[in-house]
Amino acid sequence: MREVYFIKQNKEKWLGIEQVIQGKIKKNPDDLSSLYINLINDLSFAQTYYPKSNTTVYLNHLSSQIFQKIYKTKRVEENRILYFFKTEVPLLVYQYRRYLLYAFLFFILFTLIGVLSAVYDKEFATIILGEGYVNETIENIKKGNAVGVYQQGSTWGSTIGIIFNNIGVGAKLYIYGVFAGVGTLYALLSNSVMLGSFQYFFYDYGALKDSARGIWLHGVFEIFSMVVEAMCGLILGASILFPRTFSRFNSFKNGFKDSFKIFLSTIPFTICAGIIEGYVTRHALKMPLMLNLIIIFGSLAIIGFYYFVYPTIVHKKLNNQINDAVL
Question: From which domain of life does this come (predicted)?
Fold first, then answer.
C-alpha cells in the first residue's frame, strides 16, 4: 500500500485519537485499550513498510500518548502524587526538553551580561543590588564573614519569607510567558544579571570562595528551579506563537496544562532551597568545607538527574513497553 493512501485511509481515526488524548472525547478504559491496539497495528504496519517515514514517527508519538493515558487510568487508584513526580512530569520534561536547553542558554548568556557589566562598570553592582545591601556586605567581608547577610533574623521566620519570595519569583518567570515568552525572558534577564553582578562583586572583593560556600548551598536548587520555571514560561509563550494544527486557544490550553505541571514540580526544590537558606547557609563558613561540597554537589546531582537524565530513562522505558506491545 502506498503511504499516501495509508494516511488518507486512517487520517480521521488518528485525529479522533488525538481528541481522546486531549480530553475532548471521553472513553472508558476498555475503549481506550481497543484504540491502543488498533493504533499499534497501524504503527506495526508503518514500521514494516515506511520505517523512516514521518508517519511512523507520528504514530509512535501518538501511541506513547495514548499508552500514557491508559497507564494513568490504571494507576489512578495508586498514589497520584507519586505518579505525578515519577512518570508524568519526567515525560513532559522529555517532550519539551529543547525548551529546557533554551532556558539554560538564555540563563548563561544573561548571567555573563551581568558579570561583564560589573567588570566594566564598578557601580553596576550597587545599582542592581542596592546601596544598602552592598555597603553591608562590604563590611561583612572586611570582618571575614561574607555570608553575614544570611545570619539575620530567626531561622523559621527567614525560611518562610524566603520560600514565599522564591515561589513568587518563579511564578513571575512562568506566568510572564503569556506575553509570547518575552515577559519570561525579561524576568530571567533581571534575575540572571543580578546573579552575575552579585558573584562578580564578591570576586572583586576577594571573597568569591567564601560566598560560594554559602550561596550555592541553597543556590543550586533555587537557581536550577528558576531556569526550569523559565522553561515553563517559554513553553507557554510558544503555545501562543506556534499553535500548529490546533486553534490558538486550544494550543494555549494544552501548553498551559503541560507547563503548569512542570512548574509544580519545582515547588519541592524551591521549598528545600528556602529551608537550606534559612537554617544551613548562616553556618556556611563554620561548617567543614567537605560538608559544604557534599550539600552543593549532592543538590546538583539530585536536581540535575531529575530534569536531565531521568526523563530520558522514563521515556525509553515507555517506548520499550510500547515495542513489547507491538511484538
Answer: Bacteria
